[in-house]
Amino acid sequence: MSRILIIEDEAAIRRVLSKILSEESDSYVVDEAENGEEGIEKIKSEEYDLIICDIKMPRKDGEEVIQEAKKIKPEIPFIMISGHGDLETAVNTMRLGAFDYISKPPDLNRLLTTVRNALDKKSLVVENKRLKKKVGKNYQMIGESEPIQHIKQMIDKVAETDARVLITGPNGTGKELVAHNLHEKSNRSAYPLIEVNCAAIPSELIESELFGHVRGAFTSAVKDRAGKFEAADKGTIFLDEIGDMSLSAQAKVLRALQENIITRVGADKDIKIDVRVIAATNKDLRKEIEEGRFREDLYHRLAVILINVPSLNDRRSDIPMLIEHFIQKIATENGNTPKRISADALELLQEYNWTGNIRELRNVVERLIILGGQEITKSDVQMFASK
Length: 387
Description:
- The chain has helices at about 10-25, 35-45, 60-70, 85-95, 110-135, 145-160, 175-185, 205-210, 230, 245-260, 285-290, 295-300, 320-335, 345-350, 355-370, 380-385, and strands at about 1-5, 30-35, 50-55, 80, 100-105, 165-170, 195, 235-240, 260-265, 270, 275-280, 305-310, 340, 375.
- It has 3 domains: about 1-135, Response regulator (Rossmann fold); about 140-310, Rossmann fold (3-Layer(aba) Sandwich), CATH 3.40.50.300; about 315-385, Helicase, Ruva Protein, domain 3 (Orthogonal Bundle).
- It is of the alpha/beta class.
- The chain is globular and about 80 Å long.
- Helix 1 (about 10-25) links the parallel strand 1 and strand 2.
- Helices cover about 45% and strands about 15% of the residues.
- The chain starts with a strand and ends with a helix.
């Protein structure tokens, strides 16, 4: 069933619209409000799949209604109804997020088609959120230790801002999880998170990878190509291992952060971008600055918010929870029943020196599942988890 709210001060038009929609489909449940204030109260207290709203109304006009409603429930599509003299205002409501507008008196076929399209869009938005929530489980941060609780609190405070974040910590600690959580909880989550591993791209190609190139810029540039910054427009770019970026690429990244402008390799034309930047490194960038390998001005641009991810040895209380998580995850991936693990096996694993951090722990758990018995025991750990 789709619930539709009609906000219209003219009773005759409300009745006509309600009759048309009710006769069109048994799955449409139609509610009415005779002015903008009543409409806002209904939106606050009820769940609707679509709002059909007049523009010129007493007490609150359509522009005010859509602005307030989008703050309360931003996913609800609006169809605006406008008189002949309201077209300029109707176009403005599109800028405010309306799905469409229809002139009075409404054309029956146009109205019903627009309603169906708007409801289809709402369904896609809901499904997209459900899938994102499902996918987001792959990026959940496991643990209840004090360092992890602090990171989760930092993410909640920072995520909805556009502040740049520099994530530090040893290899294998889960810095990318912090980046994904920041993006998923941000206002940019509907747009892409583009990941770039700066250490994996040769220094001579990093500028092309980040900023794109035009045909003929270098030997293998046979056609124009957009870079990662363009791909991340309105979303987030995650620059992993930024401490390995060349100084020439650093200079271009600095310009992008200062001016929100990039230039493709070999081009003269500037491209405006709207991108949030999250960076990560396992290096001591202060030391890199002292030794001339990293720009201090870029560091200060990136490090608006600093989040340090601790080593696994510094959060040993989380190890049993992480092991249980990996046992369940690996069993699900392979379609198997999760194995049990004995208390003394868990205790022994907590005492290990995890130089490879969570990545190493995951590998050890998988090895124990494959090579151990039906229950993973202390002797299994002693035999198969050795360094």
